[in-house]
């Protein structure tokens, strides 16, 4: 029996090889074609009626030295906005600044140091921005971290790194700048706060007895639970900020840029065989950083015409997350974070 099977494969090896090549070619072609049509919905920005010059507008972007933040800065600089890059590493920030100035030669781009893991750094950044710019038209809270929870990293103030940077740091920065942002709005045009979120918020939980991860985290698949929790907090922060300032001239939105190829998850422990298994899915759904930035820029330059609430968007349209909004959680998270940051 075994001899017959081996003989069959020897006699038909060319046929099997041709069949394998044919199947592989057809599969890859189908993936490429499907991706092409799907990706068209990720890059609609320049067809938007709001894609117009923003000369004289000051836009602040956190974590702007790479990935979505860098691409967002580039798009806004192309629109003639004054773009402030808030970067933790001044070395990498300077490299990004030099690269941006080559790509957008007439762009108004400024680099400032901002470490969202330090309250002192956040306060110094806000002070310097307000000293230099009488008006702030757009704040984009883009910076984020995702590191293995086993490393137990914390911020300068002792907060779990995802909670401390992705949520608390941006909460403090926004509240330090919000009065200036509010005063920069006009009857004709609202100013903007854009919070870069993620659909991974649907895997997150908010446990007020474990915000700082003292009790550890429950692993959900391959997702980083602390990161997912912080993205859910971004969602609630954006919703509460919207309720507080939408009628005061500040338009607030949370935007999911989609699954993008950036260095955000560079620390993730992903095995080679897992990368191979995920490749076909990535071919269909993974966007470039520039494609991910399109929705962010769209939210930054266009009004929330639909007054969609909670104000979360994806692919240039309102997005309904799986997580059901809870008004009590939203208010409590704001109050708890305000106390942690000494914001009145």
From TrEMBL:
| Superkingdom in the source lineage | Eukaryota
**Which Gene Ontology molecular function entries are recorded, alphabetically?**
oxidoreductase activity
Q: Which residues form the signal peptide?
A: none
Per its UniProt record, what Pfam families does this chain match? adh_short
What are the record keywords, sorted? Answer: Membrane, Oxidoreductase, Transmembrane, Transmembrane helix
Q: Which InterPro entries match?
A: NAD(P)-bd_dom_sf, SDR_fam
What the entry lists under SUPFAM superfamilies is as follows: NAD(P)-binding Rossmann-fold domains
Q: Which residues cross the membrane?
A: 20-37
Protein name per UniProt? Retinol dehydrogenase 12-like isoform X6
> To which species is this protein native?
Diaphorina citri (Asian citrus psyllid)
